[in-house]
Amino acid sequence: MIKYIGKRILMLIPVLLGVVLLVFSMMYFSPGNAEDYILGDMATEEDKEAFREEHGLNEPFAIQYVNYVKDALRGDLGISYTTKQPVAEEIFKRFPTTFKLALLSTLWSIVIGITIGIISAVRQYSILDNVTRLIAMLGVSIPTFWEGLMLIILFSVQLALLPASGFTTWKHWILPSFTIGTHSAATVMRMMRSSMLEAIRQDYITTAKSKGQTNFVVVTKHALRNAIIPVMTLVGVNFGKLLGGSAITEIVFSIPGLGNLIIDGIKVKNAPLVQGGILVIALAMALCNLIIDVLYAYVDPRIRSQYVKPRVKLASKSATTEEEK
Questions:
Q1: Domain 87-307 listed as CATH 1.10.3720.10
Q2: How confident is the model at residue 153 (pLDDT cuts 50, 70, 90)?
Q3: Most-buried pick from 48, 200, 257, 289 (CB within 10 A)?
């Protein structure tokens, strides 16, 4: 297992280099110049040239990319054009907020999606099943920004129960995390339902029922353990996506998160800030996938057996002698 984890970590290196190259190319070849956005229309040509010289923007593309990779390997993600602060400090000030939002949203999706998915599979083709599938379809279709605005109007404006912006107290966490969580819960519910339906039709489920075990034990102990494996993959991927894809929700609820920071950087072509933020998000997503793969081995014994060396039993001398005879 340790060897497998080591290989996966080594595979992260070309992935991250590719992400940096892609984002770096997009920022480099996109229209507009950073000095025009940062210095404004009143800046002289001398000021613009000094800005480009200070940040190494006069160098060719390949040299800029190599220099950025060298600095990133040392933990230096550059200096923000607007605040003149290290990009790494700005990112890691915002990252805990985004991580907390993604974690709370994932918990919503797990509790709602898995619970409703199991009930819907056990009660297949019932009224409850049809209603939950309709809700799941609506959850996937409704844009998160529209849902967030409707929740603000209902719970903040009309009922005055929850705050409409910020992310400081536990009350501030409810609306934004629920907005993203319900959208993710819809996909988790659909995956959980289909996976559970496949599991409860297996022969071992029939054997468990023939032994007189209750439906609750059959579902939770036998079917759920096998049906949860593809759902774990979906939850892990969704968590990684939420780390970088919650920018719209952060804007709607005025949350000072990483997504909001990257959007602000894109507006003024703040290349070090955008590149550093996306690099951190890519690293977080890769680590999430690695953790999910490792958890597979603890959930499914069949997967764990692939990484355990078989124990070879040595034959006794007497048995060897008898075989030779």
A1: yes
A2: very high
A3: 257
